[in-house]
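Milestone M4 deliverable, item 7.
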Amino acid sequence: MTLTSQQETNIWVVSTAMGILSILAGLSIIYSYFRFETLRKFSFELVVFLAISDIGSNMTYFLGHRAELVGEGLCTLQGMTQQFFELASVLWTVVIGLTLWSSVVRQVKMENRAAMHGFAWGTSFIIMLLPLSTDSYGPAGSWCWIKDKMPGTVWRYIVFYVPLWLAFAWVCYLPPPLHYATPLPPTIAQPSHPTPPNPTY
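Output delivered:
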C-alpha cells in the first residue's frame, strides 16, 4: 500500500513526538546515573549505554521523513545511523541479559567492558557498512533506511530482523533458568514453624 504525502507526514509527526518522549526518558536515566552515587554500578552502567543507543536511534527521525525533501546524502546518513543505533539497542539488550544470566546462573561476574563495547558498538558498525556494498540505503517508506526492493529486502533480514529475532529468543529463554537459579529468601525457602507451647495439665 502506497501512503500519501500527508499520511507520511502524519506518521513522521507521531514518530517524532514519541521520539522526543523516548529521548527525555533516556536522558533521565543518564542523569540519574551521574546524579545518584548509589546507581553507579556496573549493572546500571549497561542500562545507560542502552539508553544512549535509544537516544541516538530516536534522533535520526529529526533528519526528515521523505527522501525527496532531505536529499540523497542526508537520506543515506539517516538510514545508516538508524541502522547502527537500532541494532546497538538490540545488542545491548543481549549484553544485559547475558550479564544477568552469567551472574545468577553461572555465578560468574562479567565485567569485561572492552568486550561488551566491542560486541555492541563494533558489531553494529560493521553490520551497518554491509548494505553500502549494494547501495541499499535510501527511501524506505515514511523515512530513510534500507530500500524496500532487492537486494535491500535481503539486507533488512540479514542486518536487523534476524539479529532482532535471535535477541528476542534469547530474552525469552532467560526467565526459567533465572527463576530456578535465584535463591529464595530464608523466610520463604525455609518457613519457620513456631513450636507449640507445652500444654498445661
